[in-house]
């Protein structure tokens, strides 16, 4: 549904905040970026004139939709392999079974994310963020259920505290429940508003038709959510200090995508026009030429033009050499390369990858620009996921019944860490072997265990590494006591 289809009451609410008309203007831009993402960037077609013979030829208008492929690849690389959200309780004493409460908290989070279909939503939310410049994570907290959803940039408006841009003071969310119905009387628009007052979070909900009329029975006045925070977090894509809207990756490369599509379409037109040899006729009567049919096996009866004093008609063909081919390829390649470079995505075409290393280190080098770009984006995403994990744990304190659904645990001091993962193979066996050779010379046993210890070679904590070293010392002492003369 386009910007012009928004009901007046939504537009009035959007423009009534501190930013005024800028908000509605930005909303129109966001919806335009989504249109470009789905359909490709527009490009101009040269006007050949009403009376031109070219009017008999329909120019090609083939949009490449390369923006969609590049943004999808960027999102898939960044979060296609979901990050690990880990809970650690440093003050909990370790038992023979590890840290039971820490494990219980981890299992609780794991169960919530699983039932909320987290992996798929995370991937789609990343795409929304790259397209619209920002995205909101909203957690629906009720006494018997938790829900997680990502809201695109054209579905919410938020305000922050005057002296702290990181603290949200008000959020308005809206969307059309019946987007395919053009009749405004049958349209249904849902609106939800969160706000903070005296340290409490209140929510109001209502359902309207396309004219803004309230649907009877579908309004909830300010209700205390029981939370001490608004359950919404806004992730801003790139941008600068104080930017609340972020930058759209679509806007960054839409001009290149337009030229890319235009060049390809023009090339197709050239091929269509000149893929067959041009046949020429000389010395024939104009009436005879008009009756010629260019089909296989046809015999032409050419009559000489009497004006030319009986000159014998002749025919021939002109082959097209496509001499512009190299220039076309270079131009297209330059535009394509600029689009890839803008998003840090390597061009893995067959021509580009011939002769390159296929080891884990080689692929990591190839993907290094994209890794750097994703790491920059993770600076905004990691705090958001930490906030999400904290809110999910806090919700179980407010509504203890959630523990019977997702898993019981005891509240304790804890630390949330986010470990992002990229889908690249690692040369772990080789790296472990090299690091092991350094133990005793340029590396301690503890540092090796912290990096490569554990059953899955994912590393150990300080406490686990100390316990493992202590166990190794005990076993060595037992061997020495069993063999007083030394172990042969």
From TrEMBL:
<dbReference type="Pfam" id="PF05133">
    <property type="entry name" value="SPP1_portal"/>
</dbReference>
<dbReference type="InterPro" id="IPR021145">
    <property type="entry name" value="Portal_protein_SPP1_Gp6-like"/>
</dbReference>
<protein>
    <submittedName>
        <fullName>Phage portal protein</fullName>
    </submittedName>
</protein>
């Amino acid at each position: 549904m386009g910007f012009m289809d928004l009901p007046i009451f939504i537009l009035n609410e959007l423009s009534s905040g501190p930013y005024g008309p800028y908000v509605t203007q930005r909303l129109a831009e966001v919806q335009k970026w989504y249109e470009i993402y789905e359909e490709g960037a527009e490009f101009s077609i040269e006007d050949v004139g009403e009376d031109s013979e070219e009017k008999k030829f329909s120019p090609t208008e083939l949009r490449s939709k390369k923006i969609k492929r590049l943004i999808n690849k960027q999102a898939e690389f960044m979060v296609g392999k979901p990050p690990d959200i880990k809970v650690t309780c440093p003050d909990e004493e370790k038992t023979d079974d590890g840290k039971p409460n820490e494990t219980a908290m981890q299992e609780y989070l794991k169960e919530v994310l699983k039932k909320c279909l987290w992996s798929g939503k995370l991937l789609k939310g990343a795409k929304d963020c790259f397209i619209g410049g920002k995205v909101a994570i909203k957690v629906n907290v009720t006494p018997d259920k938790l829900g997680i959803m990502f809201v695109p940039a054209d579905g919410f408006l938020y305000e922050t505290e005057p002296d702290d841009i990181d603290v949200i003071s008000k959020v308005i969310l809206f969307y059309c429940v019946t987007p395919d119905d053009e009749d405004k009387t049958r349209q249904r628009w849902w609106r939800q508003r969160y706000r903070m007052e005296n340290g409490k979070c209140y929510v109001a909900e209502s359902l309207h038709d396309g004219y803004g009329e309230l649907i009877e029975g579908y309004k909830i006045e300010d209700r205390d959510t029981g939370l001490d925070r608004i359950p919404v977090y806004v992730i801003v894509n790139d941008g600068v200090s104080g930017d609340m809207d972020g930058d759209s990756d679509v806007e960054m490369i839409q001009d290149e995508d337009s030229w890319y599509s235009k060049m390809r379409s023009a090339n197709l037109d050239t091929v269509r026009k000149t893929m067959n040899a041009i046949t020429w006729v000389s010395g024939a009567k104009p009436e005879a030429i008009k009756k010629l049919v260019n089909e296989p096996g046809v015999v032409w009866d050419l009559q000489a033009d009497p004006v030319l004093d009986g000159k014998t008609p002749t025919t021939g063909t002109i082959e097209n050499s496509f001499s512009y081919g190299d220039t076309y390829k270079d131009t297209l390649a330059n535009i394509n390369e600029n689009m890839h470079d803008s998003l840090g995505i390597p061009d893995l075409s067959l021509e580009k990858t011939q002769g390159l290393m296929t080891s884990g280190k080689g692929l990591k080098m190839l993907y290094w620009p994209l890794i750097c770009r994703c790491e920059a984006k993770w600076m905004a995403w990691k705090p958001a996921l930490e906030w999400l994990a904290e809110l999910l744990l806090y919700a179980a304190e407010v509504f203890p019944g959630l523990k019977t659904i997702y898993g019981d645990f005891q509240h304790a001091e804890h630390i949330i860490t986010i470990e992002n993962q990229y889908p690249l193979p690692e040369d772990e066996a080789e790296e472990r072997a090299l690091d092991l050779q350094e133990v005793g010379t340029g590396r301690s046993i503890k540092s090796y265990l912290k990096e490569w210890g554990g059953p899955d070679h994912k590393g150990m904590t300080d406490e686990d590494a100390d316990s493992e070293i202590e166990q190794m010392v005990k076993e060595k002492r037992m061997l020495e006591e069993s063999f007083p003369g030394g172990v042969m």
